[in-house]
Amino acid sequence: MSKEEIVKKNLDLHAEFMRYAFEHPGVFDQIPKGATLVILPDDEPELYKENLKVVEAQKAKGLPVVIVRMQVPKPVVPSLEVVGA
Q1: Is residue 79 part of a domain?
Q2: Which of 12, 24, 64, 77 is most buried by its number of CB atoms within 10 A?
Q3: Is 45 part of a structural domain of the chain?
Q4: pLDDT tens digits for 11-24?
């Protein structure tokens, strides 16, 4: 998996997490100030492994880490229908 793919997939995961967090604002209270948020996608083993490296690096530095486990969001594919002219 290229670095570009890792970044793109992580941005998608974080966008989905933020959508959830804004609908459930109490989740922000559970995240310690200064913590690194790392999402481990259960259905994407290669990305899970890459993100786990971030967790281990932060822990080795003694820094707080919050791990979120979730599924990779599925893209929304709208269906458009033009009615009338």
Answers
A1: no
A2: 12
A3: yes
A4: 999 999 999 999 99
